[in-house]
Amino acid sequence: MNSIRQTLFIWLLSAILAAGALGAIIIYRNTLGEAGQFFDYQLRQVALVLRDQAFESASAQISKEVNDYDFVVQVWSATGALAYQSQPHSSLPTFTTLGFSTVDTAGGQWRTFGVPSRGYVIQVAQPMQVRRTQAAQLALRTLLPFLIVVPVLAVIVLVAVPRTLQPLRRLAAELTARPATALQSIDSSDIPIEVQPTVNAFNDLLGRLATTLEREQEFIADAAHELRTPLTALRLQLESLAAAKDAEERASAERKLAAGVDRAGRLVEQLLSLARLNPHRQAPHRLLQLDDLLRDVVAEKVLIADARRIDLGVTTAQSYSMSGDAVALRALIGNLVDNAIRHSPDGGRVDISLVSDAREGTLKIVDEGPGIEKSEREKVFERFYRGESAASEGSGLGLAIVKSVAEQHRATVELSDGPGGRGLAATVRFLN
């Protein structure tokens, strides 16, 4: 289970224990070393103190002094004979060398120090076992405060970590208590600095989600409003068809009903396209040939253009490759071509061209319709806006779809007058 608290516990307690063990080992070894140096100092001082004494007259006093320190004093003559010994022992070291040395005997190791004095050699010895025991006791006394500190630090960690993570639990409780519709930002004033980037990112997500939901609610409301009109018209046309008195009235009513069904179908199709082109749900982009896509869309519109005797011409100077969503780009081209055909007069002309260079590809569609007033050319990209100068009925969604697709593909859309000021020219520029 991925838990920050458990991770902190494991790492902090492991670090404390590791540091405590390492510190204890270092302190213990240093203390032993320092204790050995201290005991060597004592050996040397005893030997130097005894160097100027007369052993025949001070034997009892010397024996009393060194017994208090677990030392053995030996005095050797120049011939190597033992002239004096402070106390009997089962296994005493023999004369070794001047200065410090460590001697192995049957009873264990001894630490000795020898110094010359008036034709004699004074040797002071101490059992290594005694030195080790005293050094270990001294080291343990040194480690005692350290051994107390380590458990105290562990307890502090056990208490501090849950308290440190308390803001996260409060944040989780706040989010759990929120209703599903509460998308306001989280107050980050009392949030720890380390958590604020996460909270800020979450607030940004909430803001984008609120914007998306607001747009969808507006879209649903607008769609319901727009669908109400064609559905009402269809009902009225059905009533007119049922009330027709002769074949001519029936045929006229049937034509109006068919046109109404076509308009309602186109409106539903565009509503679905606009919903599918939500910028937060766009499909991944893939490499495609825009000129091939253009020819496919125009081929689908040829029958509609022929029915009104509109000359639909396509010019592609060269192939143009780009990364994009084929379905979305098909919707962009289809809406522009369909608008051009619907707004052009019978027997008119629609010219479509695609040119490209190293920087961009340019798609241009020119019709011979009434065009759009300059004051309305920005507004027509809004959903359900038809414009006061619209020459034919429409849903007001075609250019909104075009704008949405263009934004997804980092393209720009521009509306301008056609050649000679007649008609409308729609230009889409795709940046390489």
In total, the number of domains comes to: 3
What fraction strand?
15-25%
Indicate the CATH architecture of the largest domain.
2-Layer Sandwich
Order of helices and strands: HHEEEEEHHHHEHEEHEEHEE
Which blocks of ≥5 consecutive residues have pLDDT under 50?
57-68
Structural class: alpha+beta
Map the helices and strands.
Layout (H helix, E strand, L loop, with lengths): L3 H47 L8 H9 L4 E6 L4 E4 L13 E7 L2 E10 L2 E8 H37 L1 H12 L18 H47 L4 H30 L9 E4 H18 L3 E6 L4 E4 L1 H18 L5 E8 L3 E7 L31 H11 L2 E7 L6 E8 L1
Parallel strand pairs: 7-9
Antiparallel strand pairs: 1-2, 1-5, 3-4, 4-5, 6-8, 9-10, 10-12, 11-12
Helix pairs in contact: 1-3, 5-6, 7-8, 8-9
Structure keywords:
432 residues; alpha+beta; Beta-Lactamase; Helix Hairpins; Heat Shock Protein 90; 3 domains; five-stranded antiparallel sheet; five-stranded mixed sheet; 9 helices; rod-shaped
Describe the structure.
The protein has 432 residues and is of the alpha+beta class. The protein has 3 domains: 157 residues, 2-Layer Sandwich (Beta-Lactamase); 77 residues, Helix Hairpins (Orthogonal Bundle); 149 residues, Heat Shock Protein 90, CATH 3.30.565.10. It is built from 9 helices and 12 strands. The strands form 3 sheets. The chain has a 5-stranded antiparallel beta sheet. Helix 1 packs antiparallel against helix 3, helix 5 runs antiparallel to helix 6 and helix 7 runs parallel beside helix 8. It is rod-shaped, with a radius of gyration of 50 Å. The two termini are 47 Å apart.
